[in-house]
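Design review, sub-item: ligand-bound model
Attendees: FS, YL, KQ
YL presented the inputs for the uridine 5'-triphosphate complex:
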Amino acid sequence: MNLTEVKKMLEEKGQSHLLKYYDELSDGGKENLIKQIEAIDFSVICEIEKDEHEKERGIIKPLGALTIQQIEENRKEYESIGMEAIKEGKVGALLLAGGQGTRLGYDKPKGMFNIGETKELYIFECIINNLMQVVNKAGAWIPLAIMTSDINYEDTVNFLSEHNYFGYNGEYVYFFIQDMSVTTDFNGKIHLTEKGKVSFSPNGNGGWYTPFVNAGIRDEFVKHGVEWINVFAVDNVLQKIADPCFVGATVKSGCVSGAKVVSKAFPEEKIGLLCTEDGKPSIVEYYEMTDEMMYQKDENGKPLFNYGVILNYLFRIDELDRIIDNPLPIHVVEKKVPYIDENGNYTKPEKPNGYKYEKLVLDLIHLMRDCLSYEVVRDKEFAPIKNLTGVDSLESARKLLEKNGIEY
Ligand code: UTP
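KQ shared the predicted structure:
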């Protein structure tokens, strides 16, 4: 597009302010800005008009789980099936590490955060330590893909290689970069972060499969023999990765996916609930929960809608291939987004000042044919670090590390 065409297009979309500083830019800067504008997917911004809290859903029903007790009764068998699969190279791991961790307020990739008190202990290190437990038992390396964003790619790659992957075999570590999406203010006006720079931010953790395929890593995984991918978040320092029991139970169930879940701690807990929607697995976000979903009990007095997801999933690759072209919904999320104000000054807001547009991995579950809901002991496997203090924080995670005998 030439400048006249870009101007016309932006005018039609109500985004002419993106060219406010165009004349002040160098020739290269001008060209670069036009390229960025051409890359914008404006369609996401229409999502502002749909109220996230009132999106139409199908018929939601509770989904039970393979309970902790049932798992313990069959642990030996599940572990042996899972171990066999791991030894045969059928299991790969995928770390979602493209987020910006705005709640933690740490500018570097969250995995670089040192959670130690008496020694250094980085979040990435905790993850590798957890994965190494399985690698050592199986006597086989597990291919590990790490998704970053454009913004934190270099820091992540450098940090891990400087630390020798905390003992992991670098030949089994693959990095790829997720897609980005624009950020806007609350009126849908796209932010600039510099006079010639449009504000793009990572487009959520849901769209990982396409860039994973495009980067050639799916094919690398398949070459290793991988049939299952264990997808997990960066911030849960207690989570088990490529957990043989989880793998074995999911394989045995015949399901094409699996989700680790915990029993709700209290009825109103802010956790996504694994349910069924029109007969297919589906996750209902806490803000969509009706009173019935919060308070109704089953015949044993347990909450009817009881199982919350902890962002640890198993996906079968052939099922991901089947659904790769299905669109995922866009979620409009309020966040703190740095931008340049009307006077051209860079501003880092203290509270949410606009929207990011994200695809979420939980929506991928609804595209699956079925999903094994697999219950784990919360205090042993769920210590997410979202904030510095309070709920899901550094503080609460440290207490759980101590409870599990992990030095920090
Ligand atoms: P969160 O929902 O906690 O988002 O991500 P966040 O961006 O890291 O943190 P806040 O909300 O700004 O405080 C859950 C997981 O999904 C990954 C994160 O790195 C984390 O492992 N994620 C999130 C991505 O990989 N890409 C994204 O675009 C967003």
